[in-house]
Structure formats: structure tokens, C-alpha cells
């Protein structure tokens, strides 16, 4: 079979299954069964498919996924994350858009501890959004920062999605995790700057709360020192151990999970019920991720075996596209896909083609991986099917309509696009820390 026909069969079957509503992982599984039967030789091919599937999740490098998930779930279900947000709110005094700034700083802090975009947005939306709307905040400044900062959890470690991307793409997981730190912080600073400038230009967007309690001296700083600094120590332990070369990603993830459990015990908030919920949620999320990894890895192998990958690679090579234009094309494709499918599906569809092309063009895989994470993060906020848009709709009051949620996301999408362009032309932001580590 010619590579064009093989590519059409695999991708055509995949899109048909997804269009009729088959879940992503099962759609890929169905395509893999078809591909194994056609390209690997009937029953023998199905046996090889099983062996490849087992091998794809037997890698020790995947261990950080459940450990990072557990780390965030323990802090979330014990309520420590909420205490940290309250401490940050007390620390910020009367400034324009105070609660919007709290949502950015608090969301960034929780992102360094959880790695979960959904949990981040749901928690911040459930705690801060009602209060901001009650005080008369414009929906753009009430919902926008909460949704935008939720996506930062994909960049700043611990990030299960970054581990997944590194495993699927063959990128150093440690370097990819470290590479997302500076872009995530730059993005957070951009959000803060936008909120301050907008509120100074038009104070009516975020009315000041004259009745807000004022704390001075130690009463203002003590909750931050008690509820935030020790938790940030977990992030320092996880990232610092990787940066210093003392621990692998798996070992640093174990350090983080253990530190999170010890922290909840020290704060006397770890109950059997909270631990049970954290463990069950960790198991559920981890199984979903590993199932997706099985489907994606075997999909890539079948594309390679059928000749579709090498055929497409040869076609693009003949076009003599520059590495920069190739990267721009990849990012544009991810931005378009982000409007209609989720991040895991984007990785599963594109990585079998992107990584061989990047390797042939001599593109730095860490640089490309960080930009892919940012492009996929933007997909969380792009209408009509951005995941964080749906999460915000579920926690927002019924008076908030979906078009208002879309409008609230637009300014922050623009900031993320600027950060993506900045990294495209200043690669050091993505590769500087990983090179320091190595």
C-alpha cells in the first residue's frame, strides 16, 4: 500500500470515529486494531500490537505522572490550597483590581503545587469569582485571570502533561519540566501587568472595596509565612533537586508527593477521607493518561511501519522549508486544532509527524516542546471547545452567558500569543534553565 493511502486510512478512520462521538482513547484503539490487521499481518499483527502496548507503559520514566497527580490532589482535597489563597489575599493591600491580582498570584502558586489545569480553574473560580462579581468587577477581569492562570499549570512543574509530552516525543522530561518555568512566570507577569494597567485606565472595571479589612505588620504577613512559604518549599525541593542534578524526574516527583503528605500531616488536615479521595482521583487520572499513552504510542509505531511518516517527511523535505517556518507551521496547526479538540488528542495526532520533522531539521526538542505546551495551553481558552471555558461555565453564576466567558478569555489569549512569539525569537527563555541544569 502506498504511504498516501496508508495515511488516509489511519487518519480517516480516526476522524470518523471521533466525529461519531467515540472517546479519544477508544478511537485511537480502534484505528490501531485496523492498522495492526492491515499493516502487521492479521492475527500476528494483533499479537504484536499487544506486545507493543505493554512495552509502551513499562517505562520507568512514566512514574512521575501518578506521583505529580497525587501531590496536587492531596493539597487540594485537604484544603491547604484554599488556605494559601486566603493568605495571599490578606497580603495584597489596596491596589487596582486587587482580587484579580489575587487570582493570578494564587493560581500561579497553586500551579506550582498541583499541575492540574482543571483543579486550578475550578478552585479559583469557586472561591474568588462570586466575590469579585458581588463587588462589581467586570466579567473580563473577574473570569479572565482565573481561566488564564489555570493553563499555567501545564507549564510550571509539576506538570503531568509535560511528562506525557516528553515521553511521547522522546524529549528529556527533566529538561522539559524545567524549561517551562521561565515562560510560565513571564506569562503570569504579563497577566498581572494587564490587570493593573486596565484597572488604572478604567477603575470602574474593578471597584475598590472600602469595607475590606486592613491588616498591618505581622498580622498581615503571618498567614503567608505559615500557609504559603512551607508549600513553596515543596516546589523548591522538586525543581531544585532536578536543577542541581541530585534527582531524576521520578525521584523529584516522589520527593514532592512525600513532602505534600508530610505537609498535610504537619498542618493536621490529613484525614482518611481526604486521603481516600486523593488516592482515588490519582488512580482515575493516571489510568486515563496511561491508556492514552498506550493508544498514542502504538498509533505512532503503525504510522512509521506503514511508511506514512517517512513519506510525509520526504514530501516536506522536498519543499525545502526553513526550520523557523517549519516550527511556525507546527504551532499554527496546534492553535487551529486547539479550537476543536483537547490537548491529549492534539499530541496524539501531531507528534508522530512533528518529531521526525523536527529531528530532520535539527530543531532543539526542548525549545519545540515548551512552545508546543504553550500552544496547547492556548487551546484551553480558544472557543468553542476550550476546556477551561467549559469549567468556568460550570462554576460561574447562571447569569453569566457563554459569549461573556469567551470575551473574558480574549485579552489573555493575546498575552499568551505574545509570550509564544517571544520564545520563538528568544529561545533562551525556554532552553536557558535546562542548559544550566545539564
TrEMBL record:
Recorded superkingdom: Bacteria
Residues of the TRAP C4-dicarboxylate transport system permease DctM subunit domain: 11-429
Subunit structure: The complex comprises the extracytoplasmic solute receptor protein and the two transmembrane proteins.
Function: Part of the tripartite ATP-independent periplasmic (TRAP) transport system.
GO terms, molecular function: transmembrane transporter activity
Keyword Magnesium attributed: no
InterPro entries per record: DctM, TRAP_DctM
Listed GO CC annotations: plasma membrane
Protein's organism: Parazoarcus communis SWub3 = DSM 12120
Compartment(s) of residence: Cell inner membrane
Keyword terms, alphabetized: Cell inner membrane, Cell membrane, Membrane, Transmembrane, Transmembrane helix, Transport
Record membrane topology: Multi-pass membrane protein
Transmembrane segments: 7-40, 60-82, 141-165, 171-197, 228-247, 253-270, 282-303, 323-341, 405-430
PANTHER family given in the database record: C4-DICARBOXYLATE TRAP TRANSPORTER LARGE PERMEASE PROTEIN DCTM (PTHR33362:SF5), SIALIC ACID TRAP TRANSPORTER PERMEASE PROTEIN SIAT-RELATED (PTHR33362)
Family label: Belongs to the TRAP transporter large permease family.
Ribosomal protein among keywords: no
Protein name stated in the entry: TRAP transporter large permease protein
Amino acid at each position: 500500500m502506498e504511504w498516501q493511502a496508508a495515511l488516509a486510512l489511519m487518519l480517516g478512520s480516526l476522524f470518523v470515529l471521533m466525529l461519531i462521538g467515540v472517546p479519544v482513547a477508544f478511537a485511537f484503539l480502534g484505528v490501531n486494531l485496523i492498522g495492526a490487521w492491515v499493516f502487521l499481518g492479521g492475527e500476528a499483527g494483533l499479537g504484536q500490537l499487544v506486545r507493543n502496548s505493554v512495552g509502551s507503559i513499562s517505562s520507568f520514566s512514566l512514574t512521575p505522572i501518578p506521583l505529580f497527580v497525587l501531590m496536587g490532589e492531596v493539597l487540594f482535597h485537604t484544603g491547604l490550597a484554599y488556605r494559601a489563597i486566603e493568605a495571599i489575599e490578606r497580603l495584597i493591600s489596596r491596589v487596582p483590581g486587587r482580587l484579580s491580582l489575587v487570582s493570578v498570584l494564587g493560581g500561579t502558586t497553586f500551579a506550582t503545587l498541583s499541575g492540574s489545569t482543571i483543579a486550578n480553574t475550578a478552585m479559583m473560580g469557586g472561591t474568588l469569582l462570586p466575590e469579585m462579581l458581588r463587588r462589581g468587577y467586570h466579567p473580563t477581569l473577574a473570569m479572565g485571570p482565573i481561566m488564564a492562570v489555570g493553563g499555567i499549570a501545564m507549564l510550571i512543574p509539576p506538570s503531568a502533561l509535560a511528562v506525557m509530552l516528553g515521553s511521547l516525543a522522546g524529549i528529556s522530561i527533566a529538561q522539559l519540566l524545567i524549561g517551562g518555568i521561565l515562560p510560565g512566570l513571564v506569562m503570569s507577569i504579563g497577566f498581572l501587568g494587564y490587570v493593573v494597567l486596565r484597572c488604572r485606565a478604567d477603575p470602574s472595571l474593578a471597584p475598590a472595596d472600602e469595607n475590606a479589612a486592613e491588616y498591618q505588620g505581622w498580622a498581615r504577613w503571618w498567614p503567608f509565612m505559615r500557609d504559603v512559604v512551607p508549600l513553596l518549599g515543596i516546589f523548591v525541593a522538586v525543581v531544585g533537586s532536578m536543577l542541581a542534578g541530585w534527582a531524576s524526574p521520578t525521584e523529584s516527583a516522589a520527593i514532592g508527593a512525600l513532602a505534600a503528605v508530610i505537609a498535610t500531616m504537619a498542618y493536621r488536615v490529613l484525614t482518611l477521607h481526604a486521603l481516600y479521595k486523593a488516592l482515588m482521583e490519582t488512580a482515575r487520572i493516571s489510568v486515563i493518561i496511561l491508556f492514552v499513552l498506550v493508544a498514542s504510542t502504538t498509533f505512532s509505531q503503525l504510522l512509521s511501519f506503514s511508511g506514512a511518516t517517512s513519506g510525509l517527511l520526504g514530501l516536506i523535505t522536498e519543499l525545502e522549508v526553513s526550520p523557523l517556518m517549519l516550527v511556525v507551521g507546527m504551532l499554527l496547526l496546534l492553535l487551529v486544532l486547539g479550537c476543536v479538540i483537547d490537548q491529549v488528542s492534539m499530541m496524539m495526532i501531531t507528534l508522530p509527524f512533528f518529531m521526525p520533522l523536527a529531528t530532520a531539521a535539527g530543531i532543539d526538542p526542548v525549545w519545540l516542546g515548551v512552545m508546543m505546551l504553550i500552544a496547547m495551553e492556548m487551546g484551553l481558552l480558544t472557543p468553542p471547545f476550550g476546556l477551561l471555558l467549559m469549567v468556568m461555565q460550570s462554576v460561574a453564576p447562571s447569569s453569566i452567558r457563554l459569549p461573556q466567558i469567551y470575551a473574558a478569555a480574549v485579552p489573555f489569549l493575546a498575552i499568551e500569543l505574545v509570550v509564544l512569539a517571544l520564545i520563538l525569537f528568544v529561545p533562551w527563555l525556554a532552553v536557558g534553565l535546562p542548559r544550566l541544569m545539564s
